[in-house]
Specification:
Elements lengths: L1 E9 L2 E7 L9 H8 L9 E6 L7 E7 L4 E2 L3 H15 L5 E6 L2 E8 L2 E5 L4 E11 L2 E9 L3 E6 L8 H9 L10 E9 L2 E8 L4 E3 L3 H15 L5 E4 L5 E9 L2 E10 L1 E9 L1
Parallel strand pairs: 2-3, 4-6, 11-12, 13-15
Antiparallel strand pairs: 1-2, 1-18, 3-4, 4-5, 6-7, 7-8, 8-17, 9-10, 10-11, 12-13, 13-14, 15-16, 16-17
Length: 269
């Protein structure tokens, strides 16, 4: 079988994109893992699939991590998805909507940049002390479509993201599904730096959009810094997170950043 695909990246978070608007493609977990394999496949942090909508949106987005498991949402992937569907559909509109397991997502185009309207954050937990690799860490938690643990640090360059991120990702406090792990340093008012260990990739990635949103909102709660918050990711790009404070939490969360085409190709499966 020859499978056509497009490779894209959002702030260094890279994806294989597939057009399945005719619902003819049946993806199994080993196939997804092979596509993401950087030695034997295309190589990516995850796979994004375009499907027909079920509830009145323009499209449906399915997202699979590199291990083949399906996740509810991916912020950087959503921006890539938005540019991809505009290319393959020929739609001329400047706003679209698509369905995800995390809820309805809206996208607006600003040239090569895409602004994503995220679902409202949930399950906020602050200032839990957890033992990580034999020492206590103050951990915050927020679900921004997928679960994110956030640790604020003084020097982000000295953090053992692989070891500490893995320990957080698998900590019993976040069982049974685990969590993504983020380490965040404040740089200046409304400006932070982040490093992320992603669940499903099981390694540090160059960017994670939902993690950026979680970190920005939790930073606001710690410092009072106003929206928007600029977030420098490991890949070198700066993403912008907007939000509004509501009585029950936060609403109108947006994530703005790049979504770049890398190449088109086909692979034998």
């Amino acid at each position: 079988m020859q499978l056509s695909f497009t490779k894209m990246n959002g702030a260094g978070n890279d994806f294989v994109l597939l057009d399945n608007r005719d619902s003819a493609l049946r993806l199994e977990t080993p196939t997804i893992a092979l596509l993401c394999d950087r030695h034997r496949g295309v190589g990516a942090d995850g796979v994004l699939v375009v499907e027909p909508p079920a509830h009145g949106a323009d499209f449906r987005m399915r997202y699979y991590n590199a291990d083949g498991g399906e996740a509810e949402m991916c912020g950087n992937g959503a921006r890539c998805f938005a540019r991809f569907v505009k290319k393959i559909s020929g739609l001329g509109q400047e706003e679209i909507s698509f369905e995800t397991p995390a809820g309805l997502i809206g996208a607006r185009y600003h040239g090569d940049l895409v602004e994503i309207s995220m679902s409202d954050p949930q399950a906020h937990r602050r200032s839990e002390i957890l033992e990580i690799n034999g020492r206590p860490l103050e951990v915050h938690f927020l679900n921004t479509g997928v679960p994110h643990a956030v640790v604020f640090v003084d020097d982000i360059e000295t953090i053992a993201v692989g070891a500490d991120g893995s320990a957080l990702r698998h900590h019993p406090a976040f069982s049974p599904k685990g969590t993504n792990a983020n380490f965040v340093q404040a740089q200046s008012p409304s400006h932070i730096t982040i490093r992320t260990y992603e669940r499903g990739v099981e390694d540090e990635t160059l960017a994670c959009g939902t993690g950026v949103c979680a970190a920005a909102i939790l930073h606001h709660l710690r410092t009072g810094d106003p929206s928007p918050i600029s977030v420098l990711v490991r890949g070198g790009d700066t993403l912008r997170v907007g939000f509004e404070k509501a009585d029950a939490g936060f609403t109108s969360v947006t994530l703005t950043g790049p979504a770049d085409f890398v190449f088109d190709g086909s692979i034998s499966l």
